[in-house]
Specification:
By secondary structure, the protein is α/β, with parallel strands linked by helices. The chain has 16 helices and 16 strands. The chain starts with a strand and ends in a 7-residue tail after the last helix. The structure holds aspartic acid (ASP) and magnesium ion (MG).
Length: 460
Amino acid sequence: MKFGGTSVADAASISRVAGIIGDYRKTGHELAVVVSAQRGVTDQLIEISTKLADAGETTMIDPFIGSLRDRHVRAVRGAAPAFAPEVEAKVEELLRNLTGILNAVHHLRELTPRSKDYIITFGERLNAPVVSAALRQNGIQSEVLDGCEAGIVTTPQHGEAMALPACDSLIRSRVGPLIARAVPVIMGFMGCTESGVVTTLGRSGSDYSAAIIGSGIDADEIWIWTDVDGIMTSDPRLIPDARVLPSVSYIEVMELSYFGAKVMHPRSIEPAMRKGIMVRVKNTFNPDHPGTEIARVAERDSRGVKGITYIDKVAAVSVNGAQMIGRPGVARAIFSALAEKEVNVMMISQASSEANISLIIEEGQLDCAIEALTGMVRQGIVREVSANRDVCAVAVVGEGMAGAIGTGGRIFTALGKGGVNVMMISQGSSEHNISFVVRQEDGPKAVRILHDEFRLSEEA
Ligand code: ASP
Ligand code: MG
């Protein structure tokens, strides 16, 4: 079971989590727990370390450390009074360590990806002992492990590290034997390289930690506890009548989360999928709700479409030129140039005339992309590069769309009737996802139109 930042944000929510775990143990199950930092702490760690490396003042450090101390001391005194002295001593030790590192960042005016990764794991380091103490307060044996101790070995890509195959046997030998006698509380979001350097798994990485651990111990199920009832047909802030999906497939949830639905860390499905472990998404604040089940095969209904997501922080880049026609290697040159600048391409479209290739990238990477591609204009490989920030991308997702005749027709007819102009379309041959690009201001309207067209608010 993984508990996200809102689920373990303070004494009250941590006590609630201890209750959920206690109830579950009473039904005769064994489990391991993965926890996030308390809500907002990771953001604060990123903010202060960035500022200190920039132009910040050392005077920022004390108040920040003080606020972390207050927060965690209050949480442990409320949720685990009997163990407060022990945990407070641990918190003090961690904060001394963190103070030293933050001072060093300031003096060096340098925040390398490696030091940043170490710093931003402190949210999890501070919180896991509090959650573990809350379990003991509720009569449940518990032990704390950091991600590294639990056996999460990763690639050395700081900030976006990925689990190595060696995790499975390490986790089995380190976490497996513990479970029979205690509930291990494992710090999410972090791992280390084979040589022991601390890494992080990307924002919201505790989901991924939980999947890696669940797969390592051959869990029957992986439960992601969050602050919403489950995975929804669309973003409820945009679509107030969006509905919780009782069942989605691994593929569907990957498509949804890659494309902006903030349900889960996009990589977290992969370890579960490899072993066919069922993943459940549940709400800590409404535990009786069945939530969403994620498995190899999901329930299907005649609609084919499961959900609609959209991302607005994207830009469209278009590369044009008659000299591209029938010339092998142009696409390779474009993608190599972008890869060299570490620009991630989210969508691609090329019409059969070959005189134009359109790409969708993150808006923040647009300057890098333009720089990379104008080099190709100078070399005469393409004639011109143009960009448009004023766009957003929408994805219609559902495994049931594969082979269902007329889904594309319905999508674009409905958009046309609603007066939405479609600027770019992309569908992979798996047919699990039809993505398209519209003007920024048309994005919410497009999602609304399609949510209605496929009657996604209605129960199956
Ligand atoms: N604490 C980390 C973050 O805020 C990881 C997580 O919450 O899953 O991104
Ligand atoms: Mg999270």
